[in-house]
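Let's inspect one such protein example.
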Amino acid sequence: MSGTKVPITRVREEVSAILAASNGETKRKFVETVELQIGLKNYDPQRDKRFSGTIKLPYIPRPRMSVCILGDAHDCDRAKEQEMPFRSAEDLKKLNKNKKLIKKLAASFDAFLASETMIKQIPRLLGPGLHKAGKFPTPISRNDDLNVRANDIRATIKFQLKKVLCLAVAIGNVSMTEDELVSNIMLAINFLVSLLKKNWQNVKSLFIKSTMGKPHRLL
């Protein structure tokens, strides 16, 4: 089903209001994130199949998201050249499977990319730490442009039903244009609806909100 329940004109109106408020007199010293907040209905997280899906948005919602390369010698050199944070197999060995240190590594970055040769070694070097943190690395090949792959991760959002019937994902920030935010929001809403068992019948409410601003209702 398409996004007919939320007219694009309504989305544009609310986005315009968020941008006016965030970039006006109350402008913050940091770039506020814009979040899409979803309330679901007619779903039983205990009984119904919990959905999960990722989609790459046309415009990067979180450009400051930190991505670390877990690389072989070749990829560590490339990361160094491009001034990207990286860790080698030797660096990971030094953590000595210490849970606290692995937890600290997982908390230091928002996401990880790993050389194909490193992916297989990660469970052995780090145990389940990154997996538990929901940050198991995305594989990269030797021909991949590291910055492009990092930006792919920054542009990708995930919808996942857990135990509660509300979801929130970052779909943009207040430095983006109205058109960019509207594109991201429409794509995110339509993708989410496609994941739901009864599509729009499972959507109770939709709001968009900047970090420090008030919620704006779309549905």
Observations:
- The radius of gyration is 20 Å.
- Residues 93 and 102 are 11 Å apart (CA to CA).
